[in-house]
Structures are given as C-alpha cells and as structure tokens.
TrEMBL record:
Keywords associated with the record: Glycosyltransferase, Transferase
Superkingdom per UniProt: Bacteria
UniProt cross-references to Pfam families, sorted A to Z: Glycos_transf_1 (PF00534)
Protein name: Glycosyl transferase family 1 domain-containing protein
Signal peptide bounds: none
Domain Glycosyl transferase family residue range list: 200-350
InterPro entries: Glyco_trans_1
SUPFAM superfamilies: UDP-Glycosyltransferase/glycogen phosphorylase
Length: 376
C-alpha cells in the first residue's frame, strides 16, 4: 500500500510539521510505503520518504519576499496533485483545498483526513459560549464558511484520524460515522523523554505552555491560580493575544506569575517545572502535554488538554475546565504534597514511551492495514 501525506506548510523541526513528518516516515514497513509532501522540509536530509515542492531553502526565502504564501501554497498543491497519482492512500493535513479533495476522489484515491482539532462546528459552540460567559467579543476565527468547508471535505473523505477522544466525540456529534474514525494520538521523540529530577525548587513551579488565548483557558488558569493562593510559582509560556490582554492585566502585579514569550528552548522550562497545567476549552491533542509526560511532570489538565494522554489519578488530574473548586483543590493538593507529585511523576515518565513517534506511527500503520489493506 503506497501512502502519501500532505501538509501545505514549511516543515520545521518542531510543532505540527515535525509531528506530520515523524508519523509519515515512521509508518514505513509491514506492507506500507509512506512518504510526505510539503512546501519545504528542514527534515528532508536527502530522505527518500520526503518530497518538497521547493527543495532549496534559499529559493524559498527569496520567493517569500516577492510571492504571497497563498501562491506558494497553490503551487505546492499543484505539484502534490501530480505526485499523488501513483499512491493508493492520501492523508491530508489541514489546509488542503476542497478542489484537491475532489480531484483525488476522481482518481479513486482513498482519502484520510488528519483532524488535528475538534470539528469546527463543535469548537465554535464551545468558544462562543465561553466568550458570552466572559462578556467579550468574538476572539476565534471560525465562521459558517469554514464549517461548511470542513463538512464538505469530511463528506468526501473515506476515513479520519482522530488524535483524542474529545475530537472523536466532536466528529460524531457533527455527523461523521464512528466506523470512519481511526482513533490515534500524537507523541514525542526519544530526546524529549528527559531525565526526571526530583523536586529541587523550594516552591513548586507550575508550567503552562501554549498561546495565551481564551481557547487555551488562560483566563480560567489565572483565576484558579490566584484563588488557590499556594506558595509556588506559575510560569506561562506563549504569546499573549491582544484579545485577552484586558483579562490578564488584573494579574500583572502578582509576583507568583511569570509570563515568558514563545521560545524554541522549551526543554529548559520543562526541566525547571514541577507540575504541568492546561485548562483548555478546545483542543485536539496538544503536543505540549506529551512533552510534559516525557519530562515526568504531574499534569493538571482539562479533558481537551489531556484526555487520552493523561490518566486521571495516575499521572495527575483531568478536570472539567469550569469546575473551579476542583481545580483550586487540585492545585493546592499537588503544590503541598511532594510525595504525590513524585508518584504522579514516575507514572507519567513511565507511560511517555508509549507515545514515542515510532510507536504512534506503527499503531497508525496497523489501523490502515486493518481498514484498507484488503482493498490493495
């Protein structure tokens, strides 16, 4: 079975591009030949499994100064269509046009959608309700046309990779058949499984990593942290979106909270932390949570932030994002109980190897063989 994944981005050695690359390359073996196609890949290194619309990084930089990213992506998609003709299965990551879906279907290709977040109809409802609760204007970018576009693509697709139980339920609620859904996960690399260092901080350090936006529950986190009133520190790593600036200003004088802009040196912050915390309103399966397991951090997360990754009561706590009292009690408990943190840490670290990219890719390969193998 020949499988081609498509991501219309420049693939960097981190983030969702790294995830797509790791999965596609790792699926090779046991009756599957797998490649990935993108604008350009920093991970190509002459790999026979990597295809690029623009091979030269210098040429891409020059083109980017004179040509819009939209035109570069259209060119990439055109090249991808031509290359995809010799493959049996195409795995389409977000951003691929509806026209290409239709074209691939006309060629008789089996189409698998990579659903990295909840269905947009489901997400729009959650986020709109949260904005109404906060009494603020619209902060998300989901509209009726984007929902219709997703529905049209899902109607054409044969299968959907779902990285979490939350995504699965959102797809079913939006009309996707359970039989079409291939449950899976994301993961981390071997070098992201860090040595566990016993609590060395006088005061426990809690770590949030992600965009500082309503979708990530930043307003809830700040409220819960403030009201928990623990003797510790909260480090928030990520770019602060203007839409939430007014929500966080009231905490600017709190010395127990530190804001750090986006950084690629995230490993040092995971090493520094004692607890990972993420009360997301809507997600897919955030890569930062897998990194927390790899660092052996106890996790306090919402279902969107860790369902399917964090085991409640084993690696930490999985709590409804709006259960304020439970969040406060959990923060206080984990901050005060060093032995509990140690136990959670050990379990998290032991489980992290289950989510190594090679293991994730092998499970996906098996799913494709079980669902599609008999057709080829």
């Amino acid at each position: 079975m020949k499988v081609l994944s498509y991501l219309h981005h420049h693939i960097h050695p981190y983030g969702i591009g790294y995830a797509a690359h790791s999965i596609a390359v790792g699926m090779n073996g046991q009756n599957i030949s797998s490649e990935i196609f993108s604008i350009h890949s920093d991970l190509a290194n002459g790999s026979r499994f990597v295809r690029q619309a623009i091979k030269s990084s210098l040429l891409l930089r020059v083109l980017s100064k004179f040509v819009s990213i939209e035109r570069i992506r259209r060119f990439t998609e055109w090249r991808f269509r031509r290359y995809a003709r010799k493959f049996d299965v195409v795995i389409l990551w977000p951003g691929c046009s509806l026209e290409t879906f239709k074209y691939l279907k006309s060629l008789g290709k089996i189409i698998v959608v990579e659903s990295i977040n909840c269905h947009q109809k489901f997400a729009e409802k959650l986020l709109s309700e949260e904005e109404l609760r906060l009494g603020i204007g619209k902060t998300h970018l989901i509209d009726e046309s984007s929902i219709a576009d997703e529905n049209a693509k899902l109607a054409i697709a044969d299968y959907v990779f779902s990285p979490s139980p939350q995504v699965t339920e959102s797809l079913i609620a939006s009309g996707v058949s359970r039989q079409q859904i291939l449950p899976t996960s994301y993961g981390l690399s071997q070098d992201q499984i860090l040595p566990v260092i016993s609590d060395s901080n006088d005061k426990p350090v809690f770590l949030f990593v992600g965009s500082v936006i309503v979708r990530k529950g930043i307003h809830l986190l700040l409220e819960y942290w403030h009201d928990a009133n623990v003797d510790g520190k909260l480090i928030i790593v990520g770019k602060v979106d203007p839409s939430v600036q007014s929500l966080i200003e009231q905490y600017s004088s709190d010395d127990s909270i530190e804001f750090i802009p986006f950084t690629t040196d995230i490993e040092s912050l995971y090493r520094l932390a004692d607890v990972f915390i993420l009360p997301s309103i809507e997600e897919g399966s955030p890569l930062v949570t897998y990194l927390a397991l790899g660092a052996g951090l106890p996790c306090i997360v919402s279902p969107m932030g860790g369902d399917g990754v964090v085991s409640d009561g084993v690696d930490g706590f999985v709590i409804d994002p709006h259960d304020k009292q439970k969040w406060i009690a959990s923060i206080q408990l984990v901050a005060a109980d060093r032995e509990l943190r140690h136990n959670f840490s050990q379990h998290a670290h032991e489980r992290s190897s289950d989510f190594l990219w090679n293991n994730v890719a092998k499970k996906r390969r098996q799913l494709l063989i079980e669902k599609i193998g008999n057709e080829h």
